[in-house]
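[Discussion] Sanity-checking designs against the backbone

I'm trying to build intuition for which residues belong where. Below is a structure token string of 116 positions. I'd appreciate it if someone posts a full sequence so I can compare it with mine line by line.
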């Protein structure tokens, strides 16, 4: 919708409702993914068992816990799931984010240049 477009209150209400339902759906999907990967408390091992690499990958960001080493594919995927899950947790009221953290910037690494 263009900025300043004339729309009625019914249209705005429908947009708000649709966005709220879509957001709830996405947050549930994130929660389901996290439960699927981390539900047994073995997220990293689970990801490795389904084919994610366990050795540092120079194509991944540096490991903040191990300076000079890149993240493995499994750890990188687990970090992305954790970022998403924190957002879902804030949405559902089961988590807080106590400091400034740019989730958009962190997740942009996996957008594969998609801007839609």
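Best answer:
Here's mine. Compare freely.
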């Amino acid at each position: 919708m263009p900025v300043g477009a004339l729309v009625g209150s019914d249209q705005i209400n429908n947009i708000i409702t649709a966005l709220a339902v879509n957001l709830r759906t996405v947050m549930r999907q994130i929660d389901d993914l996290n439960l699927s990967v981390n539900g047994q408390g073995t997220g990293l091992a689970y990801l490795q068992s389904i084919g994610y690499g366990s050795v540092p990958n120079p194509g991944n960001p540096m490991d903040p816990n191990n300076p000079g080493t890149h993240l493995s594919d499994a750890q990188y995927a687990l970090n992305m799931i954790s970022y998403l899950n924190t957002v879902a947790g804030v949405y559902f009221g089961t988590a807080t984010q106590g400091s400034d953290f740019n989730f958009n910037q962190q997740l942009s690494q996996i957008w594969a240049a998609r801007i839609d």
